[in-house]
C-alpha cells in the first residue's frame, strides 16, 4: 500500500470512529464516557495527519509502523463499540473496553508526538497555534485508569486482602456507582451476565470466574456505601443499618420478606425479580417462590424509630451523593453479643427497663435474666439478617441509631480459596487462613452464611485440636462468629463440635477458652442443644473457667451456664460441679459480675440442692446486700432467690431474717421493678405468716 494511502486510511478510520461515538451522544453511560475521552487525542492526531498530507514530507518506516498500529487500535475500538451491549454490566464492559482504549490513547499520543517532531524539523511547515496548544493540553491530561483500578481491586480480592478504600471510591465515582439505585442496576446486570455465561459453553470466551469476582466487588462497594456517614444520616440522625434495604441502601418504607428470609424494600426487590432473577440478592440462594410477604415487625420498628427521632418518612429522600468524609467510622453499640476489636464476642450489660430479649425464667416465670439470647447478637448482626427482626423479642428501645461497623463481604471465589488453604498441611498457612476467616466472620452475616455453605465448619472443627495455639484460637473464634447465624448452629453441632470445643475450653490459651465458652453459650440457645451440651463434660469445663478465668472468661462461662441452667436436669450437674461457690464469690461488687452471677443463682435456686448449697456457701448476706444496693436487675433476681430460700425452708427463712433483710425488702416494695416489688411483698408476707404461726 502507498505510504500516503496509509495516512488516508487512518484519517478515514478516525472519522468513522468519531462519527460512531457522536451518534451515541444521547447515551451517557460510564463506558461511553471512556470512548469519548479518546476523541480529543484522535482529533488532534487527525489535524496533524491533515497537515502531513498537505506537506510533501517523506515517511520513514518507523512512522509508517506507528500509523499502522494506531489504525489497528482505532478499528478494534470502533468494532468493540459497535458490538457493545450498552445495557449490560458497567464493570464488565469497562474491563473489556478499558485496556484497548488505554492502548489507543497511548499509541495515538505517541503518534502525535512523533509526527509533531517531524513537522517541526521541517523548515517549510509551521504547525497552527491551535494544534500546538491542543498537544500541550493532552500531554498534561490524565489518562482514565478505571480499568486498571478494577483489575487491581480484583487482584486484592483474589489474594484475600481488603481492597483499597481509595481505589474503591475512585471506581465508584468514575462509574457512577454512588447510590443504591445505580448499584442495584449493576447487580442486576452482573446477575444477567452470570445467567448468560451459565447458558453458554466454554467456547464462548465468557469468563465466569471474572463475573463472580465482579459480583464480589459490588458487594464490597455496597459495604463502602453503607459505612458512609453522609449516606446513612437523615436530619443529623444515623439510620440503623437494619432499617436500610440491602438493595437500595436506604431506609425502608414498605419492607417485605423474600423466600430466603431476607428483608428488602418492596419496589427494589420487585425490580430485581422483574428482571427474571430467581436468586436472593443477598445470600444468592435459589428462591423456592417469588411471593413477597410484608414484614410488619420491621415496618413497626422503623415507624417507632422515626417518631422517636422526629423524622417524617414521607418527606425523606434518601438519594444522596457520598464519599467525602468516610474515614471517621463509628462502631455500633451492641446488643447482646458484640464483636470487639479482636474478633471475639462479648456479652453486654442491659438495663432491665429496656431489656426485652427472651426472658429465660424459672418454671413460675418469676424473674428476668441479665443474659441474652444469641439471636440478639448485635446491631450489626441484626442488620445483616432480617430473619432476626421477625422475632417479637426485639423492642424499639433495643435499637440504637448508630452507624454501621466494618462489614466487608467476601466473594465466593475468595471463600473457596480459603477453604482450600484450610486443607493445607502447612501450619503457617492454616494459621493465616483461620485468621482471615476469623476477620471475615467478625461482622458480616453474609460472610457467615457463605463460609458455612462452602464447607468451612467441619475443617475449622478439625483445627480445634491443632498443636498451634494461635490456629486453635482463630478456629474457635471463627466458629463462635459463625454460630451467631442460627442456621449455622445446627451445622456446627451436627458436625461434632461439642467435644472439640470442650477440649479447647480445657487446654486452649485464655482467649481460646473464652471463645469456646462463648460458642457453647451461643449453641445452647437452642433447646435440644442444652440437653446435648449438658450431658458432656462441658459443665465441668465452664465451671473451671468461671473459677479461674479472666473477667471476660468468667462472663462467658456464666452466660453459657445460665443458658444450660434453664434445663432442670442441668441444674444438678452445675451444682455438683461446684459452680455455686464461685457464683457466690462473684456477688462481690468489686468482681464486676454481680448481675450475671445472681442470674445463674436464680435458676439454681429453684431446686433443693441449689438452695442448700447457696446457703452453705454463705450467699445470704450478699443477697441481702444486693437487695439493698444492687442494680434494678440485681435486686429483682436477689429477691427471687431469697423468696425461694424463705418459702421452701424455715431454717433458711430465719437466716435471711437474721441478716436484716426486712428494711431493704420494704424499700424494694416501694422503689423496685414490678417483679421485684412482687417478690419483696411475697417474702414480707411469708415473714408475717411465720410470726403469726409461732404466736
TrEMBL record:
InterPro entries in UniProt: ARM-like, ARM-type_fold, ARM_PUB, Armadillo, PUB2-4-like_N, RING-Ubox_PUB, Ubox_domain, Znf_RING/FYVE/PHD
Residue ranges, annotated region (Disordered): 349-404
Keywords, ordered alphabetically: Repeat, Transferase, Ubl conjugation pathway
ARM repeat positions: 455-497, 537-579, 578-619
Catalytic activities: S-ubiquitinyl-[E2 ubiquitin-conjugating enzyme]-L-cysteine + [acceptor protein]-L-lysine = [E2 ubiquitin-conjugating enzyme]-L-cysteine + N(6)-ubiquitinyl-[acceptor protein]-L-lysine
One annotated Gene Ontology cellular component of this protein: nucleus
Leading EC class: transferase
Single annotated GO MF: ubiquitin protein ligase activity
Gene3D superfamilies according to UniProt: Leucine-rich Repeat Variant, Zinc/RING finger domain, C3HC4 (zinc finger)
Bias kind Low complexity: ranges: 369-380
E.C. number(s) listed in UniProt: 2.3.2.27
Residue ranges occupied by any U-box domain in the UniProt entry: 238-312
Pfam families: ARM_PUB, PUB2_N, U-box
Biological or metabolic pathway of the protein: Protein modification; protein ubiquitination
SMART domains in alphabetical order: ARM (SM00185), Ubox (SM00504)
Biased composition (Polar residues): 386-404
Protein name stated in the entry: RING-type E3 ubiquitin transferase
Organism: Zostera marina (Eelgrass)
Amino acid at each position: 500500500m502507498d505510504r500516503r494511502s496509509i495516512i488516508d486510511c487512518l484519517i478515514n478510520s478516525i472519522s468513522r470512529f468519531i462519527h460512531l461515538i457522536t451518534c451515541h451522544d444521547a447515551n451517557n453511560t460510564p463506558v461511553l464516557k471512556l470512548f469519548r475521552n479518546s476523541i480529543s487525542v484522535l482529533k488532534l492526531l487527525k489535524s496533524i495527519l491533515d497537515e502531513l498530507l498537505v506537506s510533501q514530507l517523506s515517511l520513514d518506516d518507523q512512522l509508517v509502523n506507528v500509523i499502522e498500529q494506531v489504525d489497528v487500535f482505532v478499528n478494534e475500538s470502533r468494532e468493540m463499540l459497535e458490538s457493545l451491549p450498552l445495557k449490560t454490566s458497567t464493570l464488565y464492559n469497562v474491563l473489556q473496553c478499558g485496556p484497548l482504549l488505554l492502548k489507543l490513547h497511548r499509541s495515538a499520543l505517541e503518534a502525535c508526538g512523533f509526527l509533531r517532531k517531524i513537522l517541526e524539523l521541517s523548515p517549510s511547515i509551521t504547525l497552527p497555534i491551535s494544534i500546538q496548544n491542543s498537544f500541550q493540553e493532552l500531554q498534561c491530561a490524565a489518562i482514565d485508569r478505571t480499568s486498571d483500578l478494577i483489575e487491581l481491586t480484583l487482584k486484592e480480592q483474589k489474594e484475600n486482602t481488603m481492597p483499597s478504600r481509595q481505589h474503591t471510591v475512585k471506581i465508584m465515582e468514575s462509574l457512577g456507582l454512588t447510590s443504591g439505585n445505580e448499584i442495584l442496576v449493576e447487580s442486576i446486570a452482573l446477575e444477567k451476565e452470570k445467567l448468560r455465561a451459565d447458558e453458554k459453553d466454554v467456547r464462548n470466551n465468557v469468563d465466569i470466574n471474572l463475573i463472580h469476582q465482579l459480583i464480589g466487588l459490588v458487594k464490597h462497594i455496597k459495604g463502602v456505601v453503607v459505612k458512609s456517614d453522609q449516606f446513612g444520616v437523615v436530619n443529623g440522625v444515623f439510620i440503623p443499618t437494619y432499617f436500610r434495604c440491602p438493595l437500595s441502601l436506604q431506609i425502608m418504607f414498605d419492607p417485605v420478606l423474600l423466600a430466603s428470609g431476607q428483608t428488602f424494600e418492596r419496589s427494589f426487590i420487585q425490580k430485581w425479580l422483574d428482571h427474571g432473577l430467581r436468586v436472593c440478592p443477598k445470600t444468592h440462594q435459589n428462591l423456592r417462590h417469588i411471593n413477597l410477604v410484608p414484614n410488619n415487625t420491621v415496618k413497626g420498628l422503623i415507624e417507632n424509630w422515626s417518631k422517636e427521632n422526629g423524622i417524617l418518612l414521607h418527606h425523606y429522600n434518601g438519594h444522596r451523593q457520598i464519599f467525602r468524609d468516610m474515614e471517621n467510622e463509628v462502631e455500633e453499640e451492641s446488643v447482646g453479643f458484640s464483636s470487639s476489636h479482636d474478633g471475639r464476642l462479648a456479652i453486654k450489660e442491659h438495663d432491665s427497663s429496656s431489656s426485652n430479649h427472651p426472658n429465660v425464667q424459672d418454671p413460675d416465670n418469676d424473674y428476668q435474666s441479665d443474659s441474652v439470647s444469641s439471636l440478639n447478637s448485635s446491631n450489626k448482626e441484626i442488620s445483616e439478617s432480617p430473619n432476626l427482626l421477625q422475632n417479637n423479642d426485639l423492642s424499639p428501645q433495643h435499637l440504637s441509631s448508630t452507624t454501621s461497623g466494618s462489614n466487608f463481604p467476601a466473594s465466593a471465589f475468595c471463600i473457596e480459596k480459603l477453604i482450600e488453604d484450610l486443607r493445607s498441611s502447612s501450619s503457617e498457612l492454616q494459621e493465616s487462613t483461620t485468621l482471615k476467616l476469623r476477620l471475615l466472620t467478625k461482622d458480616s452475616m453474609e460472610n457467615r452464611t457463605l463460609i458455612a455453605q462452602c464447607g468451612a465448619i467441619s475443617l475449622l472443627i478439625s483445627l480445634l485440636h491443632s498443636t498451634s495455639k494461635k490456629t486453635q484460637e482463630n478456629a474457635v473464634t471463627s466458629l463462635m462468629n459463625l454460630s451467631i447465624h442460627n442456621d449455622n448452629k445446627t451445622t456446627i453441632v451436627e458436625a461434632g463440635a461439642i467435644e472439640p470445643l470442650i477440649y479447647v475450653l480445657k487446654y486452649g490459651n485464655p482467649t481460646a477458652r473464652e471463645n469456646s465458652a462463648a460458642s457453647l453459650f451461643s449453641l445452647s440457645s437452642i433447646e435440644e442443644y442444652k440437653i446435648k451440651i449438658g450431658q458432656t463434660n462441658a459443665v465441668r469445663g465452664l465451671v473451671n473457667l468461671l473459677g479461674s478465668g479472666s473477667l471476660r472468661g468468667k462472663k462467658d462461662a456464666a452466660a453459657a451456664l445460665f443458658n444450660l441452667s434453664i434445663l432442670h436436669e442441668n441444674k444438678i450437674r452445675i451444682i455438683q460441679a461446684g459452680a455455686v461457690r464461685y457464683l457466690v464469690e462473684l456477688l462481690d461488687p468489686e468482681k464486676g459480675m454481680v448481675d450475671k452471677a445472681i442470674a445463674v443463682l436464680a435458676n439454681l435456686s429453684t431446686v433443693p440442692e441449689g438452695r442448700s448449697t447457696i446457703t452453705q456457701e454463705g450467699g445470704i448476706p450478699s443477697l441481702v446486700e444486693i437487695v439493698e444496693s444492687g442494680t434494678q436487675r440485681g435486686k429483682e433476681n436477689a429477691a427471687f432467690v431469697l423468696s425461694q430460700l424463705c418459702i421452701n425452708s424455715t431454717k433458711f427463712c430465719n437466716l435471711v431474717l437474721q441478716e436484716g433483710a426486712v428494711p431493704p425488702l420494704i424499700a424494694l416494695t416501694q422503689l423496685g421493678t414490678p417483679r421485684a416489688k412482687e417478690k419483696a411483698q411475697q417474702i414480707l408476707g411469708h415473714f408475717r405468716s411465720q410470726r403469726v404461726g409461732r404466736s
